[in-house]
Amino acid sequence: MKAVILAGGSGTRLYPVTQAVNKHFLPIYNKPMIYYPLSLVMLLGIRDVLFIVNPTDLEDFQKLFGNGSKLGMNIEYQIQEKPNGLAEGLLLAKEFIGDDNICYMLGDNVFFGHDLVKIMVEAKREIEESGGAYVFGYYVKDPERFGIVEFDENGNVKSIEEKPKKPKSNFAVVGMYFYDNEAVEIAKNVKPSDRGELEITSVNEEYLKRGKLKVKLLGRGFAWFDAGTHDSFLEAGEFVATIEKKTGLMIGCIEEIAYRNGWIDREQLLKLAYPLRKTDYGKYLMELGG
């Protein structure tokens, strides 16, 4: 399985801040927003990652991650000229994906939960063994802002709809999707919505029609932030700060994960930590490396 992280877009919901800087570089507490989805991909053991980025931001992404070798990974980049919808990312990633299955992540989503990695591993295994699509639902108070999934009385998925004016439930589909290789072909046949975008919900709808869409609800004990608005951005930062201060452990620390995965050795960890040594983040890595 390969990972594709969508990190383009114009970030209009965070204007005026994002008129000058890509939102994925903004700090969620003590690290860039983009570290959080990348860290989850790494926790799954996925080393091949494609970032889909704006033309103006490519150089900054390369400056931050390079080709991924410093983390023991293979990181590539694909330009998205204009934000034409989330499903377009699957089309842009076609060559990178090849014959593999896909972990598709939104770059502005932050997740946390005790069993989060466990259920992600379960989703990955489900796709690798049975194919189809595996997505996650989360209860929200403002369902008209999201792709919404409706269930019948037996808990089976009944419908899925993008930003409905009259939502049929309060369960939003969050920005973490697992697909088999058919997703690319499905995305090719997606027609632009009334908003003029290629909606990822249309891809999920097709899997539902085929009887191959599985939705798992993230209930109590899980936190999800769509950090693309000012309020959710602030909430995500405060949440991460609280957890890290209480536990003494980092969330979304990509260097730590690479080290614990055995992708880099102690010498490389300390090399990455040294330029950051004046920060709490750098000190954390230095202590980790002994």
Report on the structure:
The chain is built from eleven helices and 13 strands. By secondary structure, it is an alpha/beta fold. It has one domain (2-133, 176-252): Spore Coat Polysaccharide Biosynthesis Protein SpsA, Chain A, CATH 3.90.550. Strands 5-4-1-6-11-8-12 form a seven-stranded mixed β-sheet. A two-stranded antiparallel ribbon has the order 2-3. The radius of gyration is 18 Å and the shape is globular. Catalyzes the formation of dTDP-glucose, from dTTP and glucose 1-phosphate, as well as its pyrophosphorolysis.
Give the name of the CATH superfamily. Spore Coat Polysaccharide Biosynthesis Protein SpsA, Chain A
Average per-residue pLDDT, rounded, comes to 94
Low-pLDDT runs: none
- In CATH terms, what is the fold-level topology? Spore Coat Polysaccharide Biosynthesis Protein SpsA, Chain A
Report the structural category. Answer: alpha/beta
Q: In sequence order, what are the helices and strands, one letter per element?
A: EEEHEHEHHEEHEEEEHHEEHHHH
Biggest beta sheet attributes: 7 strands, mixed
- Broad shape: globular
Strand content: 15-25%
Distance between the termini: 33 Å
Number of domains: 1
From the alpha carbons, calculate the radius of gyration and give it in angstroms. Answer: 18 Å
**How do the strands line up in the largest sheet?**
5-4-1-6-11-8-12
CATH architecture: Alpha-Beta Complex
